[in-house]
Amino acid sequence: MPAPSAGLYMDDTYYNQYPPGMKMTDGVPDELREVIHTHWDNFSPPNPLIAHFFGVMFFFLWIINFFGNGLVIFIFSKVKTLRTPSNMFVINLALSDLFMMTTMGPLVTINVFMQRYWAWGVFGCKLYGCIGAVCGVVSILTMVVIGYDRYNVIVKGLNGFKISAGKALGIILSIWFYSITISGLALFDVWGGYTVEGLLFTCSYDYLTDDVNNTTYVLFTFMFMYVLPMSLVFFFYSSIVKAVWAHEMNLKQQAKKMNVESLRSNVDSNAESAEIRIAKVAVTNVSLWAGIWTPYTIVVLMAVLGSRSSITPLMSQIPSFVAKTASCLNPIVYAMSHPKYREALMKEVPCLGIEEHVPQETVTTKEPVKA
User: Which residues form the G-protein coupled receptors family 1 profile domain (predicted)?
Assistant: First the structure.
């Protein structure tokens, strides 16, 4: 093996001593070139430790995802009182997230320790990208519907649109049909496509190919899978926060008129009100949405708008990985914030140490104001 040049990695165990001028795409089979953009020819091979790090992280995401979403499906399916039309959307979100990481996590983990580029062939890359797209779109649209459902109940109340089990099922099936149709077009190269991205061991939307077909597809997904859903989620949850705040202020005014400290039915006067919990969950939902999906969207837009030269393998890989963490956080945000789910979890899986206190009816009075 030749002596390493200055600036090169020097770990013989990881075979990092590559000759000057070597590209990260050198050694890739010719048949795989179909799904590897020439943009990645501009970069030297990265330290394999980086790929191994992502492989280990994908494995842990898969485990967390499996237990988190599996627990959501188990509890909501077993406890009859939780089988409501609204909770059907939460179950759908858990199923989508579970399916995504179950199909992706093991493949990536095996891949990075087997070889330094995509190991599952051209169609495997397209199928991997398509599954990720389908599940991602299903999860995004389901979160929009969950936001609408909560907006409908909290803000609209009795005047809101009543969602029955049949309607909920119809909405869920429509989401899957839409997601599979749009993502399937790219799978068969009808509109858009999927290619290897970043460090060459995952696949996603082809946002680097500069032609009308791919550009219009990426812009379509940007508008209808990010901008529009994000706007709707922001509207629903901001309306919820606004309504909750107005209700909170109204309760305080009523309590003041009745000369009581609080109208809340809590034994502990310091306990957090249900309305405040709802508001916090709403703010958390919007913040996580923006924090998880925006970095990936920025990278995609940079490529589409012509700033490809600044997109490095690591810059492409990190946002893609961050987007996958949504599948692990969704059970926490959408299920663990559900008081009845926490109660059921406390009963069915007591070893987790979950505690949910059920408030009792009471009204705390104040001492009369002395003149």
Answer: 68-334
